[in-house]
Design goal:
The protein is mainly α and 149 residues long. It folds into 2 domains: 50 residues, no CATH class; 67 residues, Multidrug-efflux Transporter Regulator, Chain: A, Domain 2, CATH 1.10.1660. 50% of the residues lie in helices and 11% in strands. The radius of gyration is 20 Å and the shape is extended.
Length: 149
Amino acid sequence: MTDLLDHADTSVVPNAQDSELAATASRALARAKKDAVHVRLDDGTDLPLPKAVTPLLIHLLTEMANGNAVTLIPVHAELTTQEAANLLNVSRPHLVRLLEEKKIPFHKAGTHRRVKFVDLEAYRARFEQERRAALSELAAQAQELGMGY
């Protein structure tokens, strides 16, 4: 992915040992999150971390503790169509159709489409809101019809 850390195009998938370590670290950080957090490196260097990093680290470690793959993407990142499709868990042709239908903003870099991560997240939020509204409407209809839901 452009503008990402080296090798960020692959997610970090924790093994069982990593998940255990992540769970322990997440719990420790959660207990200390009101305090300044410092990381001690193997060489003895003590690094104070910005307070805003703590909730991000807790979230990252919690996801790893649950065995979930984790990828770090800056909000200003521009994604290829394949990267964007992967994040939405859709096919690339489906994503391209969404772009061409102007449901997600994009621009072209030469002949290649690029999607801003922030626009992708906005689309995901809108889609989720529409999905929840449709589900609520279906549930209300089921109640009206006495379908036992």
